[in-house]
Amino acid sequence: MIFVACVTNFEGVTVIATESLSKRFPRVTALDRLSVDVGPGVTGLVGANGAGKSTLIKILLGLSPASEGRAEVLGLDVASKGAAIRERVGYMPEHDCLPPDVSATEFVVHMARMSGLPPTAARERTADTLRHVGLYEERYRPIGGYSTGMKQRVKLAQALVHDPQLVFLDEPTNGLDPVGRDEMLGLIRRIHTDFGISVLVTSHLLGELERTCDHVVVVDGGKLLRSSSTTDFTQTTTTLAIEVTDTDAHPDGTRAVREALRARGVEVLDANSALPGAGHVLLLTAQGEETYDVVRDAVAELGLGLVRMEQRRHHISEVFTDSDAENDQQRKEAVGHGS
Ligand SMILES: Nc1ncnc2c1ncn2[C@@H]1O[C@H](COP(=O)(O)OP(=O)(O)OP(=O)(O)O)[C@@H](O)[C@H]1O
121: closest CA among 168, 163, 166, 165? Predict the structure, then answer.
């Protein structure tokens, strides 16, 4: 069964399409009429804990039925083609689910055999995949003695061993230190660039997806908040950030410039003082090229040095700012009404 979905992704092909997909548990609505299309490449599925990410993945794998709506993965209907989807899709679950008493090699060979690979091919693919994720001599030791990072690599390897077209990675950076996190994000990127496998990766950390993903889908309280290319999220704004030096004549240069600019009719915004050093940064709305000249002249007249004048870029996290209060209310209502 094929349903018409509006294709909005960057290469014009849809690998995942959902239409008004809902999942209701007795006390909570985990997914709420979610309609989204995902194309090839690396896509981040981002949302706070409880936003509905794992629930969506389980429905897409055909492991959990939706309450309403429908979804297709690689053109296959999740309600009736779960087994065919799981043949073509790899899945790295969020939680630790590895047997402690077997080695990575034994475990991944077993998973390859479960996926239908013959014994020799299973062993060869396992060796290749474990090398790709960076597990070498350790692959013969029992998993129980592995670090969190090594366990995450084993989970990633078993998701890749049967050469899928698409992988779902549920919070693959969970529990990793910054170095381990960077290494895992690099591996994820290479899954697509080296092997052409598309990736849907979930995270509750917004920043890391900016660097890793081509496309980002943001969910909150089971609803779609936004779906767009990463570059659209991080596009430049009309806000200019200005930083100046202090002098003996103007010990608070920032304040002097703020007053000078306001006197010239330039709208100066209040910087977010919660950020370290934010008090030394002036934010103002650029009205056009002439705003740059006004700032330059004001700083020069005061005899201050201009340290920085740059257009700010959006951060993905800003997508949450406006909707937080509304969604908190919606979450409370969902729980309260036992929907
Ligand atoms: N089997 C279930 N029974 C009842 N409620 C569930 C079940 N599975 C998930 N939920 C609830 O559905 C909501 C969404 O959960 P889900 O695990 O999909 O979120 P998530 O975005 O993956 O967050 P996390 O990373 O914390 O798992 C949560 O409120 C969760 O408690």
Answer: 163
Residue nearest (by alpha carbon) to ligand 1 atom 30: 50
Residue tagged 């999220």 (tokens):
233
CA dist., res. 206 & res. 203, Å (int): 7
**What is the per-residue pLDDT across 5-27, written as a single tens digit (0 to 9) for each?**
333 333 457 899 999 999 999 99
Q: How far is the CA of 30 from the centre of ligand 1 (A)?
A: 6
Pocket of ligand 1 (CB under 6 A): 25, 28, 30, 47, 49-55, 171
pLDDT tens column, 49-103 = 888 999 999 999 999 999 999 999 999 999 999 999 999 999 999 988 899 999 9
Instruction: Determine the atom of ligand 1 nearest the C-alpha atom of 222.
Output: 14
Residue 171 alpha carbon, nearest atom of ligand 1 = 25
- Does this complex have an ipTM over 0.90? yes
Judging by beta carbons within 10 Å of its beta carbon (0-12, 13-18, 19+), is residue 100 exposed, middle or buried? exposed
By alpha-carbon position, which residue is closest to atom 1 of ligand 1? Answer: 25
